[in-house]
Amino acid sequence: KVKSNNLDVKVTGSEVETEEKETEEEPTRESDTNILDVSSDYPREKHISIQRHLADLEKLADLKEDEKKPCPLCPEEKFKACYSHKLHRHLQNLHWKVSVEFEGYRMCICHLPCRPVKPNLVGDQTLLKMGAHYHCIICSATITRRTDMIGHINRHVNKGETESRFITVPAPKSSHEVLKESATDVQVLPNYSTPQKTDSYFNPKMKLNRQLIFCALAVLAEERKPIECLDAFGATGIMGLQWAKHLRSSVKVTINDCNENSVTMIQENCHLNKMKVKLNTKEEDNDEAIGDGEENTDTIEVTKMDANVIMHLRSFDFIHLDPFGTSVNYLDSAFRNVRNLGIVSLTSTDISSLYAKAQHVALRHYGCNIVRTEYYKELAARIVIAAVTRAAARCNKGIEVLLAVALEHFVLVVVRVLRGPSPADDSAKKIRYLIHCQWCEERIFQKEGNMVEENPYQQLPCDCHGSMPGKTAVVLGPLWSGALFNTGFLRRMLFEAVQYGLDEAQPLLKTLVCEAECTTLKHFSTHSPYDENKQEECGVYIKTPNISAESYLVHGKRKSEEVIRNAAKRQKSENSAEHPAFYYNIHRHSIKGMNMPKLNKFLHYLSEAGYRVSRTHFDPMGVRTNAPLAQFKTVLLKYSTPTYTGGQAEGPVHLAEDVQAGEQVQAAADGKAEDAEFLEDDKSGVAAMFTEDYPTHCAAD
């Protein structure tokens, strides 16, 4: 009950009593019946400031031509009683025109003392603090600004809270959109693309990410079946539904989410795809089976828990983490109970920190010092893998990186788990610091060992520190220094992508296979990986259609000492064939005033010079090669043409004898001398070549 000097307003939703004096009781009762008629078609109680039409608002005042009436939405101190014509203008201009409309109702501005007042305010101070406000038609909130009220209502709509008061209820089915991806239907809310404002986030741009994860799971399903897999952050459940729908009895899918609305939507999407649902909403074993899958007998378990809790309670063969932002908070739980030779995949979308736009955040989340470089995407992948390695080592587990992809919107890392302290030690040793020259972008991992060197610049192949003033290099890291890809696993992923018709993933997987082997597409062969008699990863033989499971892998048992010794020998022999770390951007190192050759031709020239070379998915103009930067620039200069020659055919430039000698691929020291001569001949200054061009290329990247 809200009381002012001459006006008492008691709000019970559909009953309003307006009292000026004791003699006006009967007109008040008439107004009560009018309000009941107006609100009878609405299923909830509402404030008197919420009406459908202006006439309904005028009925509250009980306008009479020969009688003064107060405004039902203003206290007597703010607006005194007046005749009907003046009160009509007041209601129209001061309340109705500034209202907020929602589903046929108008939330008019209210000046009554409805908002709570600070307890230390008394007397006239109370009246001064009671300003205009709006009453939300959905909840009990009172909002002062009209723009804030519109945003408040929009948030209710985005969450589907449009049916009841004080209770969060999913949006009616008519407001859902049905999207289809890879023969899987999912219902989403209208604002499914805004993760901060919706419970059912679904990003169509992450389709490639979902296909890569599906291929990795399909490869694991060929090794052993059935496997238990977990989608820790289900949202709409699209990923887990694709797993169950295509792999069927090979997988036992568990979709988890801590949000109640998301869990409800996952259940509806399971029924939409003719899947049975096994509901588990508590940490205890309280399961409830919901059978609505007449055509498909596959069952999906849906849980409502915190992701850390479910990964601590249960063991899985395959775990996928895709939180909003960084995934470092869930790594310890993921590696706690994951089974031996299982797979953990994680998608990180905090690209502002990983791509060195927010360096302080990268230091806070990953404990890593980074700067913006030409190879910043690969740097981001190695940062994430280093965090994964440390989390696995804390659980006495090692890892082997199967796949690392860094694209515009996400960084995806897929690793295989190797149980035991020895694999954990081997993996931890691959976390090292990187020395990066800020002048020429040359880079090299620090040497192993704890001894402090007098001059760390000597490790860099370039001589920028000797020829340039000041400090020219920075130490980045700690980073993962090992391989980013497993060729055999990628080939089997490509085979699964072809089998299931995943067209978007096939070109990327072909690029990744070439990048893992450090070869060009011309030398790439797409033979079936199952033609080989043996498939080996991490020194462990994996079951293929041509191999019996008992010969090489016994599920649930540790490897014998002989297999471990053979694994060490194989890994030592494979290290020599490991792809080179990082890549060079051909635009970043182009020579000013020269037309550089086409990228494919340049790859051919480097290959003819005796270096391993390939393109990279990290950068469309990047070149992954084991050639030093000096030789990279020498070959680039040799086959570049001056811009003023116009129609001159592309070919080697006639240079001095010492530069032409670089055709025979001399040692790195000769390359340094040639590069130094080139820098001296550039009259425009080296600063103009690097400091002016580099920001432009950074913006283009």
From TrEMBL:
Acidic residues biased stretches: 16-25
Protein name: tRNA (guanine(27)-N(2))-dimethyltransferase
Domain C2H2-type residue range list: 136-156
Keyword entries, A-Z: Isopeptide bond, Metal-binding, Methyltransferase, Nucleus, Phosphoprotein, RNA-binding, S-adenosyl-L-methionine, Transferase, tRNA processing, tRNA-binding, Ubl conjugation, Zinc, Zinc-finger
Record region (Disordered): 1-40
InterPro entries: SAM-dependent_MTases_sf (IPR029063), Trm1 (IPR002905), tRNA_met_Trm1_C (IPR042296), Znf_C2H2_type (IPR013087)
GO CC annotation, single: nucleolus
Primary localisation category: nucleus
Domain of life of the source: Eukaryota
GO terms (BP aspect): tRNA N2-guanine methylation
Reactions performed catalytically: guanosine(27) in tRNA(Tyr) + 2 S-adenosyl-L-methionine = N(2)-dimethylguanosine(27) in tRNA(Tyr) + 2 S-adenosyl-L-homocysteine + 2 H(+)
UniProt record similarity statement: Belongs to the class I-like SAM-binding methyltransferase superfamily. Trm1 family.
SUPFAM superfamilies in UniProt: S-adenosyl-L-methionine-dependent methyltransferases
Compartments it resides in: Nucleus, Nucleolus
GO molecular function: tRNA (guanine) methyltransferase activity; tRNA binding; zinc ion binding
